[in-house]
Every structure is written in structure tokens, then in C-alpha cells.
């Protein structure tokens, strides 16, 4: 499939435009909301801080929120590309395959039975939950006649997502204290997140971003078929392990800080391929930028839906992603 951006020069310009748009979305996220602020106020909050309510909101809420939203959006966009390439399944994503649900279950388990409350500690439990969910989905999808197939893996992921979601709800029903602590987080939100929380997961996310970009050429070979990839000299077992590990880091870190946010991983890779085609050397960076832009834009919209209250950003991404998911199925892309 060829994208609408056909040559390298135009794709490079498109990437630069994406960077500018991402920066603009961060600025809009900082200045827009229930409390009226301006770009000048945002600059003064760091150059001439006066302790005003506006300056405090900008420093303690708006800027961390914008940066967390961008980082999580980038991570989910890349995770979606990796999962769709690995499984050759156009609807693969961390939420569809139960990775987000697994991370969420382990975090709620930690809050309910281990008394873990700081979000900083969520990261390691989130990574563990993402890894367990991924491993179980892979084992279940590999069982039976014919081994691992995209359809079987999709069904296995759906089973894992339903299982972990049900277990999570069961724990919350029996523990009202845990429900109060994690309910808004479970809906998916970047509101109230601090820079210290982002700093905790950022090293893992940065490593995963860089390695994912380095794997993009290998993704092209793997997309031709595993036999072809082997004939081209690719060590497919090592490649699949590294790619799966990156998905765990990206999804686990994102869920730990922002909760399970749906549909970014499905929508974004398709939009990136519409722009640049199937070359993963371009799909990965375009998906990263598009994911960040989409999540920050959704977060801005979440501030206005039920103002003066705020809707979780996960609700807005679901509203955007559900029609797109239906479009994919109706068009028969899944069968292809």
C-alpha cells in the first residue's frame, strides 16, 4: 500500500510538520482549560513566578499533564504498530490483546492486597501484568492444531482481556477503598499526574522508543512473511522477543502512569500507513507523533465535555476509536 506522501522528501517534511503540531498541542494543553491562562502566563510561570493560582496550575498541573499525555500517546502509537506487524493483524493493539487489562489487573491487585498506593510503584507491577497477559495470550493462541495464527491470537487476546477485566471488577466490588483510589485511573486519565511520575517510567519508554525505531527495518522484512524473513537472514525468534519486550515496556509503562487508554494503538497505525504506506521506517515515527497528538487533543477535549468537571481521556479516545474500529471490520480489512 502506498501512502499519500509518496517520496522521501515529502515524508520528511510531513514528519517535521508533525513535530510542529505536537509542540503546538502541548502549548494548547498548557493554556486551555477551566482556568483561563495565556501563553504569556505559561512563560512567566517559569521566568517570573509569582505564586499566583494560574502559575501554580500551569507548573503543577497543565505542563505535567501535557508531557504525560504526549509520552503516553507516543508509546501507545508505537506499541500498536509493533503488535500489528508481529501478528499481521490490523486490529491488534495493547487493549485488544489484553496487555492493558493485564497491567491494570496487577496494579489493582497490588492496591487491594498489597497496599501499594504511590503511582511510582505502579510501573513495575504494570510491566509484570503486561508481560503475564502477553505470555498467556501467546501460549493460548499457539495451542491446538495449526499453531499460532493471527485469528487464534486475536481470540486469545480477547479472552485474556475479558478475564483480567472481570477479575479487576471483582476485586473492586469487594474493596471500596481500592475502588476509590483507582476508579478514575482505570478509566484512563492524565489529569493530576506529576512530573515525578513521568520521570519514573520515562527511562523505560525512551529505551523502547529508540529500539522500536531501530527495529523498523526488521519489521519490513518480517511483514513479508516469517519464511521470507529467515531467508533474508533475520533471526526471527530474537526479533519477535525484542519486539514483544518493547510492547510490554511501552504498554506497561503507559498503563502504570495513565491507566488503560483504549483505541490509540488501533487507530494511529492505520492513519500513519494512510500517510506513508507500509514502510515501517516511516510508519513507526509517524505513528509516534500521531499518537501523541491524538491523545493530547483528546485530553483537551475531555476538559470541555462536561465542564466544569472533566471526563477521563480514555472515554474520549473510545468515542473516537469505536467508529473507526467498526469501519475496519465493515470494510473487511480484518479478513485481509
CATH architecture: Orthogonal Bundle
Given the helix and strand composition, which structural class is it?
Answer: mainly alpha
Rounded to the nearest angstrom, the radius of gyration is: 20 Å
**Estimated share of beta-strand residues:** under 5%
What can be said about the biggest beta sheet? Answer: none
What's the multimeric state? single chain
Low-confidence stretches: none
- Total number of domains: 1
State the CATH superfamily name: ABC transporter involved in vitamin B12 uptake, BtuC
Fraction of helical residues? over 70%
What separation lies between the terminal Cα atoms? 13 Å
Average pLDDT confidence is 85
CATH level-3 fold name: ABC transporter involved in vitamin B12 uptake, BtuC
**Topology as a string of helices (H) and strands (E):** HHHHHHHHHHHHHH
Ordered list of secondary-structure elements with their pairings:
Elements: H1 8-31, H2 39-47, H3 53-87, H4 99-113, H5 119-142, H6 150-174, H7 176-186, H8 195-214, H9 216-223, H10 226-231, H11 236-258, H12 264-276, H13 280-305, H14 313-331
Helix pairs in contact: 1-3, 1-13, 2-3, 3-8, 3-11, 3-12, 3-13, 4-5, 4-6, 4-7, 4-11, 5-6, 5-11, 6-7, 8-11, 9-13, 12-13, 13-14
Amino acid at each position: 500500500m502506498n501512502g499519500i506522501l509518496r517520496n522521501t522528501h515529502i515524508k520528511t517534511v510531513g514528519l517535521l510538520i508533525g513535530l510542529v503540531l505536537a509542540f503546538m498541542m502541548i502549548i494548547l494543553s498548557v493554556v486551555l482549560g477551566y482556568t483561563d491562562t495565556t501563553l504569556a502566563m505559561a512563560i512567566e510561570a517559569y521566568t517570573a513566578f509569582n505564586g499566583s493560582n494560574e502559575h501554580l496550575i500551569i507548573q503543577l498541573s497543565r505542563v505535567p499533564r501535557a508531557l504525560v499525555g504526549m509520552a503516553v500517546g507516543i508509546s501507545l502509537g508505537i506499541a500498536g504498530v509493533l503488535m500489528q506487524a508481529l501478528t499481521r493483524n490490523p486490529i491488534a493493539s495493547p487493549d485488544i490483546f489484553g496487555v492493558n487489562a493485564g497491567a491494570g489487573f496487577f496494579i489493582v491487585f497490588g492496591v487491594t492486597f498489597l497496599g501499594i498506593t504511590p503511582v511510582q510503584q505502579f510501573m513495575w507491577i504494570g510491566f509484570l501484568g503486561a508481560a503475564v497477559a502477553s505470555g498467556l495470550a501467546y501460549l493460548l493462541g499457539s495451542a491446538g492444531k495449526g499453531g499460532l495464527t493471527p485469528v487464534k491470537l486475536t481470540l486469545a487476546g480477547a479472552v485474556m482481556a475479558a478475564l483480567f477485566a472481570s477479575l479487576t471488577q471483582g476485586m473492586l466490588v469487594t474493596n471500596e477503598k481500592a475502588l476509590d483510589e483507582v476508579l478514575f485511573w482505570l478509566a484512563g486519565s492524565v489529569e493530576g499526574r506529576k512530573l515525578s511520575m513521568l520521570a519514573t517510567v520515562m527511562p523505560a519508554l525512551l529505551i523502547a522508543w529508540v529500539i522500536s525505531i531501530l527495529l523498523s527495518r526488521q519489521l519490513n522484512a518480517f511483514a513479508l512473511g516469517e519464511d521470507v524473513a529467515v531467508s533474508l537472514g533475520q533471526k526471527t525468534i530474537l526479533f519477535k522477543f525484542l519486539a514483544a519486550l518493547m510492547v510490554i515496556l511501552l504498554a506497561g509503562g503507559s498503563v502504570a502512569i495513565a491507566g488503560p487508554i483504549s483505541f490509540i494503538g488501533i487507530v494511529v497505525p492505520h492513519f500513519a500507513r494512510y500517510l506513508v504506506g507500509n514502510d515501517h521506517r516511516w510508519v513507526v515515527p509517524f505513528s509516534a507523533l500521531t499518537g501523541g497528538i491524538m491523545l493530547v487533543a483528546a485530553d483537551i477535549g475531555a476538559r470541555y465535555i462536561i465542564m466544569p468537571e472533566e471526563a477521563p481521556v480514555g472515554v474520549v479516545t473510545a468515542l473516537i476509536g469505536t467508529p473507526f474500529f467498526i469501519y475496519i471490520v465493515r470494510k473487511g480489512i480484518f479478513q485481509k
